[in-house]
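Running this now, will post back.
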Amino acid sequence: MAIYALTIFISSFLLFQVEPIIAKYILPWFGGGPAVWTTCMLFFQVVLLCGYSYAHFTSLAGRARQGYIHIAMLLCAVPFLPISPSPEIWKPGPEDAPIGKILLLLLANIGMPFLVLSATAPLLQHWFIREFPNKSPYRLYALSNFASLLALLSYPFVVEPRLTLNRQVDLWSWGFVAYMCCCIWCALSPAVIAWFHTNKWISNGTVFPESAWKVSQPENKRIPLSTLLAWLLLSACGSAILLATTNQLCQEVAVIPFLWVLPLALYLLTFILCFNSDKIYNRLFWGTLLALSVGFVCRILHLGLNVNLSVQILAYLAVLVACCMTCHGELVRSRPDPSQLTVYYLLISAGGVLGGVFVALIAPLMFRGFWEFQIALTCTCLVIFWVWLRDHVFTTVPKLIPLILVIGLVLLLDFTFRNIRDAYNPNILTSSRNFYGVLRVIRDNDGENEYLALMHGQVNHGIQYVSPNWRQNMATTYYDAESGAGLALRFHPKHVTSVAGSSGLRVGVIGLGIGTLASYGRRGDTFRFYEINPDVIKLAGNYFSFLSRSAADVQIVPGDARISLEHELINGNPQQFDVLFVDAFTSDAIPVHLLTRDCFELYKQHLAPDGILLVNISNRFLNLLPIVRLNGDAIGLQTRLIAAQGHLEVGSIPSEWVILTSNSSFLDHPEVKKSLSFMPDNAAINRPWTDNFASLWQVVK
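Update: finished.
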């Protein structure tokens, strides 16, 4: 028995360790947005379904044949080790479809190892009940989920802060070899036992006698169609709310393993609790909590940016736990005889894929806004209501439950329909959604003057006044004249001492927004914008005029900025920027791969000898100053901070820009010197981020 438990534990641990490892590995190649994790999760769910299908259909074969087949599958996974994808092959180009590229990359690099790992739990449980027919296999399922939870929680707290990505890949590969040895032992254990009993390996011309592998099985009973449908829908709702919650968190904070694994860990914890004991899930308690958490999260969504980060996270995670406990509790209540567990797990896995397909594929194509979170919540309440009606729950429990559920459902439906209706508000001139998120152009006013704004999620990425005419070319938001960006462009020595016929300023900008910085352009200047989101490029050109009104030569480079800068350097075309801005955000989330020491070394190679590098670190939740300062020290540049208060009456908002340069003429300019802010000591953080190491625990405010 112990070998089964050990093998299942190792396989589940490896299965859920490889998910954040491979996702973090490829995150920088696809813009660092939350959709990278969602797409990875879709792949994991689809392959998990394939693994469960493989376990189900091989269970129809004889025990010996199953062992042979699985050993062959294990050997087929060996060529995939180590699991690190090649950047030369898999880094995308500007024209590559990110979802298709990610799915193909994952299939080619971890497809077979992930498949055999995902099949392990149901397959070994099937073998277990044939060898130990009087013992329940569902405790092994709880053990599997415990190992998965341990893997997830250990990653952001133990693995990520201490090990580089390359080291993580190496250790994972050795762990897979250990798993293979345990799994082969399980596959051969009946034959080994038979050998000990008969002292021979060969019987009737076969290497492992089939008779030694056979155990009588109970007769299968037909499962009602409504039960099969309930398994599918309950699992789909749990999966959809998991992914939608993760998206909701990541798009407003940062795309980091902690915010990937925390919802997934809670999701698995509900599986563990429900499958480990029938006493954990109480319909009255969890039904009440579900309705209350739905009302709580509706209020949080309504208040938006006015809510503290910890309260937002608490609200999202509370409703996630309530939904998953209710769905998984109902799954456990309706679980079948152990002889039918492969069908049961197969439908649970299929439901997980349905939820993943809805969030990762269908929602971005069908919806103009980010509505899948509300829709997943609504569907969960409706499915729970249907299951309880089917089971006649409302006739056996206090009438408080249906009342609370109906109240919660009405609140959620009202909020969902109101949210969808608001997306068609006449003040919203257009909206678009793609792999990189939801963008809206809205018309608003500050009480006196009308302006257009580009919104990404709840975050404003630039405004331009419509009237009066003199305001139309005025820099706003993070880029006003008193900000670090405005000071760098106004008082760069080339602009201060420029005379007729002198060369203009060469400016690079990572992150287009609405092109506000182009308003500082003068004749002879070149402004080169790098932008990964094609919809941003389209909206900036069609609805805003900063780019078209600029006196500078404006260039736009589509695709991920880091990949584009690397290609320019490889092709012998360093840009020699006088000023380079790093101003890329996905909603309010930061792309970590643009803040590593390796990337700052790339920036320096594209700077002119006296060039100025500016990094926008304005963020509600993260203190990025220590990391940027360490990077500045690493590349030999002086670091200064300019924190501007902004003036709402002219459309500017508080901003924090870090300046990295060796240009003493610029730093000594009186207007710049008087704007410099105090820089606190960052001795507590002494390890810079690299492409192989980054941990946001260091910088959470």
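The chain is about 55% helix and 10% strand. More later if anyone needs it.
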